[in-house]
Amino acid sequence: MARNVLYPLYQLGNPQLRVFRTNFFIQLVRPGTAQPEDTVQFRIPMEMTRVDLRNYLERIYNVPVAAVRTRVQHGSNRKRDYRNVRVKKPDYKVAYVQLAHGQTFTFPDLFPEKKSPDGSPGDDDIRDQLLEDQRRRQTRDPRRGGVPDWFGL
Questions:
Q1: pTM for this structure?
Q2: How far apart (Å, rounded) are the C-alpha atoms in residues 98 and 105?
Q3: Taking 70 as the threshold, does the pLDDT of residue 16 lie above it?
Q4: Facing residues of 87 across strands?
C-alpha cells in the first residue's frame, strides 16, 4: 500500500506476528453537489493512488469497491499575510469511490430535529416567552413620571 515503508527486520525463531498498518489517513467528506447513492467522496493524501485506496477500503474496512476516480483540487491562492505576500493553501486529492452493485451509502444525520412531546414547551414557545419577558422589562415604568431609569429615586 505505502511506497516508502521500512518493514521490521526478520528474526530467526518462531513465526512472527506482523501487523502492518498503513501510513495513509483518509477523510470521508460530505459532497457539495448531489452524488448517486452508490458514490462516496473521500479526501486522500496526494501520494495515495486509486489502487492504494481500493486496497485500503477492501482489506481494512471490507467495503466492496467497483471503481475509483480521483482528481487534484488546487488550494486557494487569494489570501495575503501581514506582509502582503500571497499565502497558498495546500493542494489535496479528492477520490470518488463507486461501491459494488447493490451497495448504497447515505451520509448519517448527526443532528436530527428533535420533536417535543405533546404538552411540553418547544423551542419556539420558550423563545417567545423570553422575548416577551425582555420586552416587559424594557418598557418604561409609568410610576416614574418621565424620570430616566439611570436616575435613582
A1: 0.62
A2: 10
A3: no
A4: 79
One-letter amino acid of 135: R
Do 82 and 98 form a contact (C-beta atoms < 8 A)?
no
**Cell numbers placing 70:** 480521483
- Position 58 pLDDT exceeds 80: yes
Which three cell numbers, joined as nine digits, stand for 96?
470518488
Which residue type, as a one-letter code, is found at position 82? Y
Q: Give alpha helix (H) positions in 12-107.
A: 50-60
The C-alpha atoms of residue 55 and residue 11 are separated, in whole angstroms, by 28
At residue 95, φ and ψ (nearest 5 deg) are -120, 135
DSSP alpha helix (H) spans, 70-143: 123-138
Q: Nearest 5 degrees, angle CA 75-CA 78-CA 82?
A: 115
Cα–Cα distance for residue pair 55/49, rounded to 1 Å:
10
List pLDDT tens digits, range 101-110.
999 998 888 8
The secondary structure of the chain in percent helix, strand, coil, rounded to multiples of 5, reads 20, 20, 60
